[in-house]
Every structure is written in C-alpha cells, then in structure tokens.
UniProtKB/TrEMBL annotation:
Cleaved signal peptide residues: 1-18
Domain Multidrug resistance protein MdtA-like alpha-helical hairpin: 96-156
InterPro entries hit by this protein: MdtA-like_BSH, MdtA-like_HH, RND_pump_MFP
Alphabetic keyword roster: Signal
Family: Belongs to the membrane fusion protein (MFP) (TC 8.A.1) family.
Protein name: Efflux RND transporter periplasmic adaptor subunit
A Pfam family matched in the record: BSH_RND
Organism: Photobacterium alginatilyticum
Entry superkingdom: Bacteria
UniProt domain Multidrug resistance protein MdtA-like barrel-sandwich hybrid: residue ranges: 61-181
Length: 379
C-alpha cells in the first residue's frame, strides 16, 4: 500500500507544478501599457528669442570739477536741466586771478620792451652776448607767466564739455571748494548704453560674424500702455516680430569675466526714442534672436529637465520619442544648449512635430508600449 501512496503523491505534485508554470506564463504574456505625458516639439518664435535683463547707462558721462581752489559764486543749475556744449555751468571768485593776470601782462610788456631795446644794442655791439641772452630769457619767462595767469583765470569757469543733462549737483553757492572736488555730473543725451551679462558660450558662437548680424539685438522698455498711448507712443516691430522694441547696435564687450560670475558684460548703443523718457539707471530687457545663429536649419526647442535622460555608460543625453504607429518609445540622442527658466534648449536630434516624453523619462524603456495622457489642469 505504501508504493501506491507514493505514486499518487508524485502525480499530484506534477499537476501542481504544471499549473504554476501555466500561471507564470500567463502573467508574463500579459502586456503592460504605461501611461506617459507627451509634449510636441515646436519651433515657435518665442523659443528663439532669448531675453536678458539690461541696465541703461549714459554713453557719455563726466564728473566736472575745478582745477583750482576758490569760492563758488555762480552755480544756478538744477538736476535734469539740459545744457549745451560750451555753456557756463559754474564759476569761482575770479578777482585774484584777474589781478594776477594784470601783473603778468605788465611784466610781459616790460620784458618785451627791454628785449627789443637790448636787441638793437646787441646788433650795434654795444652790449655783450650775455646781457642779450638774459633779456631774451626774461621775456620767455614773462610770456610763460602770462600764459599761466590766463589759464588760472580760465580755470575759474566751468563750462560744459559736451551737450547733455545735469545728472547731479553736489555743491551750493558760496562754498569754499578744493581743486578736483566734484561740482556736478553731466551726462550726454545723444546716445545711451544698454548693458547685459552674457555667458561665455554665447560669445563662443561668434566666429567671423558680428554680434548685430548674428543676434539682431533689440531693447524693450516696460512703459505703461495707457501712458504710452497718451504720449502718442506707437509700438515698433522688429525683424523677430516683437512689438514695443527698438533695435540697438553692438558697441563693445568686456574681455574679462564679471566678478562672482562666469559672464561677460556686453554693451549696446541706442539713440533715445523721442516718445519715451529713457534715463540712466532704468531697467530694460534685451532680446537676442537665437534663430539667426542656427544656420544648419535644425530645430531649437526647450524641454523640461524631466524629459532628459543621461546615460552613465555612454555619457550620451537622450529623450524618448513616441512612435504613434506602434505606440512605443525610441531613444533619441540630443545635444543640449543653454538652461532657461522653463527648461533646457535642445539644439539637435529632434524635428518639428516630434512627440517626446515630458515627465518621468527615467522610468521608461525602449520599445515599451505606452498610452499618451492628455494634459489637463492640475495634472
């Protein structure tokens, strides 16, 4: 009876194991469809325009001061006042300078007469060569003193070296001031500077192409619309399609990095628009058309960081592209560009209309069957 029992147990175990294999096989054969959020690659103009915070500065600015000490007796300027080149801005008490000039003129006249007399005597050989040389040297010294006295009188007047606006007045009338003490600050009106900080990678893209040709820079000011309309402001339109902007010209850029950052200062010039009161120190935005440097015609798009996958083995950067035909994913090697507020630039590897996994790219695999999720509010 024992052999019969053992045979029965062997048959039952064989059936049980066969059932487990069939169950595991059934589980393995069931396909897993993973839901994913997709986004479509586009090449809109907004992605091609890069915006930099900018500061407005005077293209020409000078801190004006007297070259001599004295009492300030004339300073009737106010901040914001427009002045013309050569206009008298401030004046010191010039009485001592005038007296010194009169004394220098008298000494010069006396030396000139004495030299002329001794020159005639020397020609007649009535005086020695030494006396003649002394008279000539005395005349030169008197002439130098005369020129110096004239300069000292001129130094009592502070005139505008160029046309502009009085930015700041530091002193008041009837003060005793020292030489080189700043009286006022004058800023030019013809041109203003627009200054931005750019990363080194942006400058590296410029080979034999000028900055203006490469990026078509333009500046945008934040003027209230109602006020602008009241003043007759008509928004301009740049080549990139941006309204309310003004084209600027590249002026110069620093060759050393700014302290505390790996960026370089780039300066642009702008003729102040008549319909806006643009003052140094104001904030603005500088727009660079990045599509102008995309000579290869490759689409430049911006993807969120959650769509980027980096392989530790190969060092390549990939995104997952959705294939609508078989509803699977394929890995695409891409080239990264600059980091932006809404993601990172993709310079190559994708084309218009491609759909890529936007969230959770690290959790999917190649040829995995997926189901696109619709973007909804709060999801």
């Amino acid at each position: 009876m024992k052999p019969a029992l053992l045979s029965l147990l062997a048959v039952m175990m064989s059936v049980a194991l066969t059932g487990c294999d069939e169950a595991e096989s059934a589980i393995q054969q069931s396909a897993v469809v993973r839901p994913v959020k997709l986004m479509t690659v586009n090449d809109s103009t907004s992605h091609q325009i890069r915006v930099f915070p900018a500061k407005i500065a005077a293209s020409q600015q000078a801190d004006l001061a007297f070259r001599i000490n004295g009492e300030l007796v004339k300073l009737g300027l106010i901040e914001g006042q427009h002045v013309a080149k050569g206009q008298l801005l401030a004046q010191l008490d010039d009485r001592d300078a005038k007296n010194a000039l009169l004394n220098a003129e008298a000494n010069h006249d006396l030396a000139a007469v004495d030299f002329k007399r001794k020159e005639e005597l020397y020609k007649r050989k009535l005086i020695s060569k030494a006396e003649f040389d002394t008279a000539r040297a005395t005349l030169k010294s008197a002439k130098a003193s005369l020129y110096s006295a004239r300069d000292q009188l001129a130094y009592t007047r502070l005139e505008a070296p160029f046309s502009g606006t009085v930015a700041k007045v530091n002193l008041d009338n009837h003060q005793m001031i020292q030489a080189t003490q700043v009286v006022l600050t004058l800023q030019g009106n013809n041109q203003i500077d627009v200054k931005i900080q750019v990363p080194e990678s942006l400058l590296l893209t410029l080979k034999d192409v000028s900055f203006d040709e490469a990026f078509k820079p333009a500046v945008r000011f934040h003027a209230p619309k109602t006020l602008a309309l009241e003043k007759g402001f008509t928004p301009t339109l740049t080549s990139s399609g941006q309204q309310g902007t003004y084209p600027v010209q590249y002026k110069e850029h620093a060759s050393t990095v700014s302290p505390g950052s790996q960026t370089y200062e780039v300066v642009f010039s702008l003729t102040p628009p008549e319909n806006l009161n643009i003052l140094p120190g104001m904030s603005a935005e500088l727009l660079l058309d990045m599509s102008a440097v995309n000579t290869s015609g490759q689409v430049i798009t911006v993807l969120p960081l959650t769509a980027i996958v980096r392989s530790d083995d190969t060092g390549e950067t990939n995104v997952w592209r959705y294939q609508s035909g078989n509803k699977t994913l394929e890995s695409v090697v891409v080239t990264l560009g600059q980091v932006r507020a809404n993601g990172i630039e993709i310079l190559s590897g994708l084309k218009l209309g491609d759909q890529v996994v936007a969230v959770g790219a690290a959790a999917v695999k190649s040829n995995m069957e997926v189901k696109p999720l619709r973007w909804e509010r709060g999801v």
